[in-house]
Amino acid sequence: MERPLILVTGSTDGIGKATAAGLAAGGARLIIHGKDEKKGKIVQKELEAVAGGKHPDLFIADFTRQDQIREMAADLATRYSRLDVLVNNVGIYRKTRHVTMEGIEMTFAVNYLGPFLLTHLLLPLLRKSPSARIVTVASSAHEDVDRIDWENLPGEPAYDAWGAYSLSKFADVTFTYTLARNLGGTGITANCLHPGVVDTKLSRSAAPGIATLTPEEGAQTSIWLARSPEVAGVSGRYFDNRRPVRSSVLSYDRGVQERFWRMAEELAGIRSGERNEY
């Protein structure tokens, strides 16, 4: 893939910023995303230096707001003729319960519904690439989900911070598997990954003192999945440290996967013209 166009969401801090820096240093044409314009412009200048003077494009959208995600996708569709790689990196952890204006618990909304909606809206751009890739940052935290309390979703009035985070990452894994099936034969691949236990604001909030990797180390699998010829054509897999590994047993349950998918379509307001763009 010669100088691919790559979008990394949540790329003004932590793993996302390190992923963007690694991809920029590798010669990619980069699009970065954040929710704070001032911070985004600072990171944009930092990455310009890493990329040898090449100016990354910056898009601003708050992933708690579906209208802003839709606006960002529309702007991307207007500005670019294709997208080669989408790295769904954006993620949050909330110690206390917050809900979006739609009444959806915020961790679930940002970590799962946001990437789900953006991916669907960008599929037409991805289909214009000869070999597009969708890379979603999940987490081994998904393994802590051994049952789904469907009655407590999506608002999660019975809120547990770690449980909400784990569930959102579990949903990301099921999203990847269903997406890969739906995209079979299109030339677009979809994979997800565990980045490791990385020293970021998120990990310091969720589990202070346990991080073992730097953001640069945690970004390596995302960068590899985005660019490496070793995974060309590989789809529907979960990776850890650049190796395909098995995710949790429950994550392979087709009924669970499809229920999360249908829920996301409904909650993200996926319209008929946005469905089945495969």
- What is the β-strand count? 8
Proportion of strand residues: 5-15%
CATH topology: Rossmann fold
Global morphology: globular
Give the number of domains: 1
Looking at CATH, the homologous superfamily is NAD(P)-binding Rossmann-like Domain
Average pLDDT number: 94
Q: Unreliable segments (pLDDT under 50, ≥5 consecutive)?
A: none
Structural class: alpha/beta
* Estimated radius of gyration: 17 Å
Query: Span from first to last CA?
Result: 22 Å
Widest sheet: strand ordering: 3-2-1-4-5-6-7-8
* Fraction of helical residues: 40-55%
Q: What is the CATH C level class, in words?
A: Alpha Beta
Number of helices: 9
Give a short account of the largest sheet.
Answer: 8 strands, mixed
In words, what does this structure look like?
With 278 residues, this protein is an alpha/beta fold. The chain has one domain (5-274): 3-Layer(aba) Sandwich (Rossmann fold). The protein contains nine helices and eight strands. An eight-stranded mixed beta sheet has the order 3-2-1-4-5-6-7-8, sandwiched between helices. The model has no long low-confidence stretch (mean pLDDT 94).
Summarize the model shown.
Helix content is 41%, strand content 13%. It is of the alpha/beta class.
Task: Considering the chains and any ligands shown, give keywords for the structure.
Rossmann fold, alpha/beta, 278 residues, 9 helices, globular, eight-stranded mixed sheet
